[in-house]
Amino acid sequence: MDCTFEHRGKLNFLRTPALLGLSAFLLLGATGCDRFGDRTKDVINAISIQNLSNGQVQLRNEERDVELTLPNGWVDVQNLRPDADLYAAREDRTMYVLVLADPKGADIGALGLSDNATQYLSFLDRGLTQEQTEVPTSMTALNGMNALQYEVQGRIDNQPVMYLHTTVEGQTNYYQVVAWTTVENYGAAKDELQTVIQSFRGT
Hints:
This protein is of the alpha+beta class and 203 residues long.
């Protein structure tokens, strides 16, 4: 099969905030030939969950060599988006974090961190009725890898939502670590979302 580099993006939310993650359909980035189809089963089979002694949970995708460490109350929700590389939530507080890895092929490898972040954000923006431009945070690195992070606010089906979108450049992959919640909840949720984002490990 011939594989081509393609940035794609689509968002779709149910109207009820409590179902925000169930209806989220984020497809943000360069996708390989195996993003869909048989890969969804393979990804779910590659997920390991380890309960840590401090009450946290380590969520790891063995195939993609990525992991998140989740605070108490967070769970794996890979069944909601099996084509994601990792997908975790604290649904009682409407908080979600998703990881997508894009291998550095001939096309994506030719783009730098800033250009890839711009491409990823452009497709996120297409699914939103934006209320503000992207606002960069102070993040420049994530666990030893160069990274850029933006706050993005908008509406989907009249539901105000807030994203923390982080683009990370690893040695072999570009990553999107995407966190979101409702705008109403963002002030209380931001620190915890950042904690999950900061726990990201990749290669």
